[in-house]
Amino acid sequence: MRLRIYCRVILLLAGLQSGYTRAETLSPALLYDVACSACHSLGSTTDHRVGPPLGDVKRRTAGAVKGYPYSQAVMDSNHVWTLPTLVAWLTDPEAMIPNNAMNYSNALTAEETLRLAEWLLEQSGD
Amino acid sequence: MALTLSRRRFLQASVIASITGAQPGHTQTGLGKKIVVVGAGLAGLNTALILQRWGFDVTVVEARERVGGRLWTLDHVLGSPEGGGNVIGANYGRVIHKAHELDVPLRTPARTLPSDYVIGGQPIRRDQWATTDANPLPDDWRSTLPERLLARLNNRNPLLTTRAWHDPTLMATDEPADAGLRALGFPEAAIRLIDANNSYGNNLSETSLMALYRVMGEFGRLTGPGLAIHEATAGNMRIPEAMSRQLRQPVSMGDPVLSITQTRSGVKVSMASGKMVEADAAVLAVPAPALQQMVLGLPDSQADSIASIAYHKIIQLHCVAEQPFWEAAGWSGSWWTDGLLGRVFTRPIPGDHRYNMTVWINGDNCDALNAMSKADCTEAITKALWQLMPAAREVTEIGQLVRWSEDPFAGGSWALWRPGQAAQAHDAIRTPAGRLFFAGEHTAEAYRGMEAAMESGERAALQVMRALS
Fold first, then answer.
1. What global pTM score does this model have?
2. Which of these, B10, B47, B21, B28, lies nearest to B284 by C-alpha position?
3. pLDDT tens-digit map of B314-326
4. Contact between A55 and B8 using a beta-carbon 8 Å cutoff
5. Which chain B residues touch A105 with a CB distance below 8 Å?
6. Looking at domain B115-129+313-413, which of 3.90.660.10, 3.30.200.20, 3.90.78.10, 2.40.160.10 is its CATH number?
7. Cα–Cα distance, B198 to B176 (Å, whole number)
8. ipTM of the complex model
């Protein structure tokens, strides 16, 4: 199941990166603002928001922010956040980790999802 | 390491600056293009604030003389009970964040007193429900309280993903909820009790079973420790009020939209006052019954989808009890009935010795009462209340009658889905029609209620920005 999701994501990434022009698109900062910021800060510690912070998400293991009440499903998933895993998660969280607690419907296009995921990972630095 | 941190902080600062509008590069998305948002409820205000933040020139027009839509705090009744949306779910991240951002304090609501029951006119104490002869349920169902019967759907909820409730494949198996419950082994008595006070359909025969699975699945997701619900301390309407104060242009109040025409380069919005507002696009963030009163020139299939959505009927009578008169007779304070009163929710007013007592009638049980004048309706409910609780008469003040389906700008409390309907209609009602975009809880995917309104505003704002940037 997990392998199938990754394969789909890799095909998606390859397709998008080969032919897509990035002019005239919504900036990833805008996409984060509209689609994520109400529930996720870019800091590294929990705050009033209902989702975990995304500041250090790159290569973090899913469920690793101290003090955040993750669902058991996320805690048990052992995913590490990389571009393919993050794109898969944003595209359809329930397909990737069934029974997770994030009630989220992605309103972004596949290309927007990819750019947002790339940008979120960049926020973690190198 | 120091370099990495510094780069990250720089990027974070850039994002924060761009979001707050401090960095001009990111605020040019809208390039001052003009958007009219119709409706100053949570959906419209969230859409408007996002678009304003990203450089659009936004005008919000509202038919009522207040903002908030179906959030309506009854400030003139002691305890300021909510006539509209009352629960901010623990996972309502957008509502909670907006309240936090705008310094609107939230609190955990006072706990509603437990319910006793009145079935077939016979009062039953809560602790005697499972054993009393008046309990109409068969043996293996008797210990389930009436308000928890529907939750037994979660024993085998087929909706594994957020979108599945309107997925065409699953929808092909959708059926009327009463038939569906019967097929699942719910006894007739349980179906009757669910229908007596069903918040998720006007009657079970016209309610989608999948829609009920959706609601129950959402509640199932919320069970667990530490998931406290919230309310705004001074009333939930303080949230949309605070949002409206963030708009650069004040909301235009008390002027309903009559029609919108699309031209080659924009829209012309005609108001009841005779005023005309021109813009590059319009976002319609009002319930479907209010949309139907406007001339919009939508494609027939989309107009038919909007017209096909039923809205839930709710009548509330908000009262204030001076003292806990129920205690002397050994009752718990709230009631769940299968009669005219529906449910009576009683809860202490924080910082006061008195109680808010709300009669709450659902669905088709409202029909006879909605056919009456306001005064006759209030009298009929009050008479039933005194009959059930004679001791209440001397110590209870009748406050405000709320009838959502009689409100022309709401047409009911929230959108309902008939069996099989959502497979096609849900997409149709949120698909942009030229320069017209749609928001509102009925257009949301993941959530219901206040959070659905906020969610829909994000999606609508993205659609506008893609189309006009």
1. 0.91
2. B47
3. 999 999 999 999 9
4. yes
5. 162-163, 445-446, 455
6. 3.90.660.10
7. 14
8. 0.89
